């Protein structure tokens, strides 16, 4: 395990201490100081009022769930434990559930599904069926995928309260403040409606935006929010659709986190984004390189522990250019549903594909491309775009 420690300094610099440790409890050793961001400016006066004395540690787990998303906020106050889960992994796996169980998580205070794609809400139903969940937050957008339907059924069958947060709402969950940055309203585009939030703990701030893309990042800037933060989880797995220069500048992070699967079929993260973040002198960590990444905050200091040692190199062959198609042989089987081979049950996990369309799809096989789905009655340009943007279907 590998440990990195960051702390705000009065001269607005960041110091990293590098050494070996444990993801859950290790301490750094053989420290080496590296000034990674001497010119990185912070608005210290804006944060001063948020600093609280004696905060117990907050652990933010950026969990390695392959080509999916899951982030756990874990902290306690006077013996009362708080757990907030932002996104819930891939529907084909149970890795998130196993991670929570391995870390003795039995209760979730708030479980957030940033948007209803199956790589973000994939295991919400399993968690609702296995654990005590107090509240479920979702954007309010809907899809026809079986994953989404299972999640909604699980919410209805549980004792959890349900809420659709909107931009401008602020919640205090113990010492953690959650400010909702997006959406202000729904447009029907699930990425545009993706829940974005600022998490503030003492003087440290984290921004998570799900799969928010260019237009949504621009909207968050135009709403006038103070987006300045220490940690930014890059939107849409580091896709070139997200992390536009203006948004990166507005957040002004010291640390960027990327959640993506190794050799994934989408080529995430895209080289353009990685180079942009590197040029901004932001320290990068990625789950496909570092495994699970745990950022610990005491309200002033950030300590970063990674499951594996690694380095985010913009020349990494996994990274693709903005318009480059990923190599077919790089795709991992669990990344997508191959419409040319999937069973009728699997096909119904895809947005807009119910039993009748799944039967038609099987009859019309093989398909040369995703665009070829318009041969199916009822699949037009709009629904085709929804299916492609959902990102769980593919042609092989």
Number of helices: 11
Proper CATH architecture of the largest domain: 4-Layer Sandwich
**Hey, roughly how much beta strand do the residues contain?**
25-35%
CATH topology of the largest domain: Metallo-beta-lactamase, Chain A
Widest sheet, order of strands:
3-2-1-18-17-4-5-6-7-8-9
Query: Which runs of at least 5 residues are low in confidence (pLDDT < 50)?
Result: 7-52, 320-334
Average pLDDT, rounded to a whole number, is 85
| Structural Rg | 21 Å
Count of β-strands: 20
Please give the alpha-carbon distance between the first and last residues.
37 Å
CATH superfamily of the largest domain: Ribonuclease Z/Hydroxyacylglutathione hydrolase-like
Percent in helix: 10-25%
**Main sheet characteristics:** 11 strands, mixed
Number of domain modules: 2
| Shape estimate | globular
The CATH class designation of the largest domain is Alpha Beta
Structure report:
Residues 67-262 form the Metallo-beta-lactamase domain. This is Late competence protein ComEC. The structure is a single chain. It is built from eleven helices and 20 strands. The protein has 396 residues and is α/β, with parallel strands linked by helices. The protein has two domains: 2-306, 4-Layer Sandwich (Metallo-beta-lactamase, Chain A), CATH 3.60.15; 336-394, DNA polymerase, domain 1 (Orthogonal Bundle). Strands 3-2-1-18-17-4-5-6-7-8-9 form an eleven-stranded mixed β-sheet, with helices on one face. It has a seven-stranded mixed β-sheet with strand order 10-11-12-13-14-15-16. The chain is globular and about 65 Å long.
């Amino acid at each position: 395990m590998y440990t990195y420690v960051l702390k705000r300094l009065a001269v607005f610099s960041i110091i990293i201490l590098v050494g070996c440790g444990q993801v859950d409890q290790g301490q750094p050793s053989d420290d080496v100081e590296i000034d990674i961001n001497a010119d990185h400016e912070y608005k210290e006066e804006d944060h001063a009022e948020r600093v609280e004395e004696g905060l117990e540690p907050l652990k933010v787990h950026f969990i390695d769930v392959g080509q999916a998303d899951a982030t756990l906020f874990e902290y306690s106050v006077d013996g009362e434990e708080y757990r907030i889960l932002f996104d819930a992994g891939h529907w084909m796996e149970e890795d998130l559930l196993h991670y929570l169980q391995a870390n003795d998580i039995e209760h979730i205070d708030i479980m957030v599904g940033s948007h209803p794609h199956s790589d973000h809400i994939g295991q919400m139903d399993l968690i609702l069926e296995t654990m005590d969940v107090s509240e479920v937050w979702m954007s309010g957008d809907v899809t026809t995928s079986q994953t989404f339907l299972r999640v909604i059924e699980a919410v209805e069958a549980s004792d959890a309260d349900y809420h659709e947060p909107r931009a401008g709402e602020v919640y205090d969950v113990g010492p953690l403040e959650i400010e909702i940055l997006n959406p202000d309203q729904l447009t029907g585009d699930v990425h545009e409606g993706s829940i974005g939030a600022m998490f503030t703990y003492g003087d440290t701030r984290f921004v998570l935006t799900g799969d928010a893309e260019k237009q949504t990042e621009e909207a968050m800037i135009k709403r006038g929010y103070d987006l300045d933060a220490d940690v930014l989880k890059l939107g849409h797995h580091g896709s070139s659709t997200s992390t536009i220069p203006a948004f990166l500048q507005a957040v002004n992070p010291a640390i960027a986190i990327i959640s993506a699967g190794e050799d994934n079929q989408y080529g995430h993260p895209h080289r353009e984004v990685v180079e942009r973040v590197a040029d901004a002198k932001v320290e990068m960590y990625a789950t496909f390189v570092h495994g699970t990444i745990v950022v610990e905050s005491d309200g002033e200091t950030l300590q970063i522990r990674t499951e594996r040692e690694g380095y985010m190199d913009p020349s990494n062959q996994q990274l693709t250019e903005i318009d480059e198609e990923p190599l077919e042989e790089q795709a991992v089987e669990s990344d997508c549903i191959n419409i040319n081979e999937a069973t009728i049950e699997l096909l119904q996990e895809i947005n807009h594909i119910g039993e009748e369309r799944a039967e038609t799809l099987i009859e019309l096989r093989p398909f040369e491309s995703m665009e070829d789905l318009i041969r199916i009655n009822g699949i037009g340009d709009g629904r085709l775009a929804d299916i492609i943007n959902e990102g769980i279907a593919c042609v092989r």
